[in-house]
Each structure stands twice: as structure tokens, then as C-alpha cells.
Specification:
Elements (H helix, E strand, L loop, with lengths): L1 E2 L3 E2 L5 E3 L10 H6 L7 E2 L13 H28 L6 H16 L4 H10 L4 H18 L4 H13 L9 H4 L7 H8 L1 H11 L5 H9 L20 H16 L10 H10 L7 H11 L7 E4 L4 E6 L9 E4 L2 E4 L8 E5 L3
Antiparallel strand pairs: 1-4, 2-3, 5-6, 5-9, 6-7, 7-8
Helix pairs in contact: 2-3, 2-5, 3-5, 3-6, 5-6, 5-11, 6-10, 9-10, 10-11, 11-12, 12-13
This protein binds fe (ii) ion.
Length: 341
């Protein structure tokens, strides 16, 4: 049994998101927060049957099994943190370490993340996707498994403070008023306070929650730190967060392709994000460029067959029997990725 709609407190704070599994222990918390009725949906139970399945579908099923399990852990973690209940970071570590081999061995991981976004985006999916992308960055940076898990946990936890910001503000389209922007920026401090209160001691995780919007040139928030003052784990998560945010849909715009997200990151290479982390990321993400189907702005659909990794938005695309070189045909551009889901 799951919630059919977001459950908000009388003050408008998100208590439970749509689709949250309703366990018995939740009921009295909802009552204590003034919730007397809620819309629910019953779980669909598939009938057991035999089937044939392709290796890609098998990988996809395996990925989503771990992905959904990790999402459940994140939902429950945020709920307990926001309710000031006891919390063990080990639960997040276990979910991340279970996910790690699936993520790092999956050549279609970017497709699966896109599919996960199409199924619905929320704070929970953002946290998990950033955790996954930070793990990929850790792999490309040649970290040990233990270090990759630590980065993944920091990625998963980085935006926990957003659970304390009203959903209307998080989803508000257009420009925020100055006081709204102040509240939004405070999610870093809210999250840090939640983490400290819950007993999280890992300095990388704590620093990431507080510092993931700091920028190398001191233009970030909340403290205007410069590069040398920012924790390395926070620098890694910042790169993953920027990439994830650009490829995610927003109320005021559609989602951008991985080519455009990489291009935007490249524009932040000097002064905004850590240049070493960013370069490692751009080198690594390039392995996902070739073989994707894209729609061009003239409506044609083709397959990306070659990319200059420093000009990711201008690949060569095979359309039918012909080749379109976007480096030369400047009037053409990639409009969107096409997924054969
Ligand atoms: Fe954030």
C-alpha cells in the first residue's frame, strides 16, 4: 500500500512523497503531524509466469531492483532525519555498496538513469542519481572500492537539507524573490545541522552537505569558500550534482542531453568547479557518447558515431546511409536523445 499523492503537513512541508510505502510505523507520525486522511493506492502484484528476456533487459531489471531498494532507504532515511529519529549511516552505506557493482559494470547506466527520470523525478531520485554519478566519477578517478562507496554516500546525502524547504519553493518556476533564494540556499545549512544532530561523523559527508554549492572562485554559498578550502569529496559531488541537475527536468524547462550537460560543465571548468575532478569526469563520461540515438533540430533521428570529447555537442551522426558532421553543419544541433525504452 502506497501514498497516491504527496502528503503535506498543515504548514505545507512535505511529510511523505507520492508512492511512499505505507508501513505500520508511519501511521502515528502522520496523526501527530495533523494528518487525518490520505489518498492511497494498492500495490500491483504481477502473476508468476515464464518469460524470455534479453541481456539488456536482465541488466535493466537488476539495476532497477537495486535502484528501487536504494530509493526506499533514502526515503526512510530522510523521513527519520526530518523526524529527529535514530539513524544509522550504515544503512545508506549498505545500499550504496549493493548498488556499486551494478553501476560500475553497466555500459547502459546513462540510459537507465534517463529511464528512471522518465518514471518520475523527486528529491529522492536526485539524491540517488547524484550518488550514482559520483560513484562513476570515483571509478574514473581510480579510487578504491571503499573510497567510491564513501563518495557515493556523500552524493546520496548532499541535499538532505532540501527536505526542510517547502515543495512549492523547490518547484517554483522562474526567478526567486531574494528572501526565497535565501531560504533555498539555507538547505546546505539545514542539511548540515540535520547530519550533525543525527551523529554523522564522516568529515567528507558532512563537508559535502555543507559545501556542495561552494565554487572554486569563492562565488558559491553558504560561506563563499575558495577552492583550497573546499573538501575534495564536496568537489566531486559538486561536479556530479551540476551534471545531474542539467540532465533532469525542471518545472521551467525540459531536460538537457548528456552532451549539453558535459558542455555546460566544461564552461565551469575554470573558476567554478574543481578542474581536476571536472576533467576526469569529462574524460569518463565520453565513454557514453557513442551509440546513442539523437534527434536533430531538423527532425532527423540518427546514431552518434564519433565525438570530440572537448566539443560534446557537435558529434558526427549517422542518419540512414548519410553522415551529418555537426562540427561543420553549424545550422544543425542535437535537440534530444531518443531512447528505445
Ligand atoms: Fe544542493
Amino acid at each position: 500500500m502506497r501514498t497516491a499523492r504527496d502528503i503535506l503537513s498543515p504548514e505545507g512541508i512535505l511529510l511523505l512523497p507520492r508512492g511512499f510505502e505505507l508501513k505500520q510505523w508511519i501511521a502515528h507520525h502522520l496523526l501527530a503531524r495533523g494528518i487525518t486522511e490520505l489518498s492511497i493506492q494498492l500495490d500491483y502484484k504481477p502473476i508468476e509466469h515464464r518469460e524470455t528476456i534479453s541481456p539488456v533487459k536482465l541488466a535493466e531489471r537488476h539495476f532497477f531492483k537495486e535502484y528501487d531498494r536504494a530509493l526506499d532507504v533514502i526515503e526512510s532515511t530522510l523521513y527519520r532525519l526530518s523526524q529527529k529519529q535514530s539513524f544509522e549511516i550504515e544503512e545508506v552505506e549498505h545500499a550504496v555498496s549493493d548498488l556499486m557493482p551494478v553501476v560500475l559494470s553497466c555500459p547502459r547506466i546513462m540510459h537507465f538513469l534517463a529511464k528512471a527520470r522518465q518514471a518520475g523525478e523527486s528529491l529522492y531520485t536526485h539524491l540517488l542519481n547524484v550518488g550514482i554519478i559520483t560513484m562513476l566519477l570515483g571509478e574514473w578517478a581510480k579510487l578504491t572500492d571503499e573510497e567510491i562507496i564513501n563518495w557515493g554516500v556523500a552524493g546520496v546525502m548532499h541535499d538532505i537539507g532540501k527536505s526542510q524547504v517547502a515543495p512549492d519553493l523547490l518547484d517554483k518556476p522562474g526567478v526567486l524573490e531574494p528572501e526565497e533564494w535565501d531560504t533555498m540556499k539555507a538547505h546546505t545549512v539545514f542539511g548540515y545541522m540535520m547530519a550533525m544532530r543525527s551523529g554523522i561523523q564522516d568529515s567528507g559527508v558532512l563537508a559535502t552537505i555543507l559545501q556542495h554549492h561552494e565554487r572554486e572562485d569563492g562565488s558559491g554559498y553558504p560561506n563563499g569558500l575558495v577552492g583550497s578550502q573546499i573538501h575534495p569529496t564536496a568537489k566531486a559531488v559538486t561536479v556530479a550534482d551540476v551534471f545531474e541537475a542539467i540532465t533532469a527536468e525542471r518545472p521551467y524547462r525540459g531536460r538537457f542531453t548528456i552532451y549539453h550537460a558535459a558542455d555546460a560543465l566544461q564552461g565551469m571548468l575554470y573558476g567554478k568547479v574543481c578542474p581536476e575532478m571536472c576533467t576526469t569526469f569529462l574524460e569518463g563520461i565520453a565513454s557514453f557518447y557513442v551509440g546513442n540515438r539523437v534527434r536533430l533540430n531538423n527532425g532527423q533521428v540518427g546514431e552518434v558515431i564519433w565525438v570530440n570529447k572537448y566539443l560534446p555537442t557537435r558529434p558526427t551522426v549517422r542518419v540512414g546511409e548519410s553522415y551529418v558532421d555537426l562540427m561543420r553543419q553549424r545550422d544543425l544541433s542535437i535537440e534530444e536523445e531518443v531512447f528505445d525504452f
